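Give me the 3D structure for Copper transport protein.
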Amino acid sequence: MEMIWNWNTVGSCFLAKSWYIRTEGMMVASSIGVALLAVTLELCRRACKEYDASIVAQMERSVTAATLTNPSLLPPSSRSSPTVRILSLRVSPLQQAIRSLMYAITFSVAYIVMLLVMSFNGYIIVAIFVGAGLGKFLTDWMVVKVAMKHEFAALSTSINFFINLGEFIIVGCEESSSSVAIARWLNSSLEGTSSTL
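Predicted structure for Copper transport protein (197 residues):
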């Protein structure tokens, strides 16, 4: 293994004597495998996040179910007025063991990727970059929940009502030129308003 930047194919060796590149086809297969390893790393990271989120959701459900079946668990002030009470809950030993195992697997894959980068082989490093980007794209698609204020929601509903009313006028009225012209003007003015929102 060379400790300087290189673009070697045949004759390269990665991590062990058994991973010795004898042909260019082996180098292509190794690059694809390394890219898939980087995708696997992102998949492991996502699995850890999802498992933690499922534990939180499970705890929230159990607390909600417990307070619904037994309201005496709530503090006296929260029965009459809505207050927020923060509870600190621990995961079970089994859940913590699963979390630790998932972290150990993720850490191991990341360490192997780091050792592959230390080969300083350009093809392997590019494969890692491509795999990391592809892994992020495939496993960590961002979904954002945005709270819509009440005033904007009401305005949006009103605009949609008038747009639908304008479409009804166009479809339901007689084909007189004045009613169609009014309906088209109403549609165009309301669509311009909704696009500025």
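The mean pLDDT is 81. Let me know if you want a second pass.
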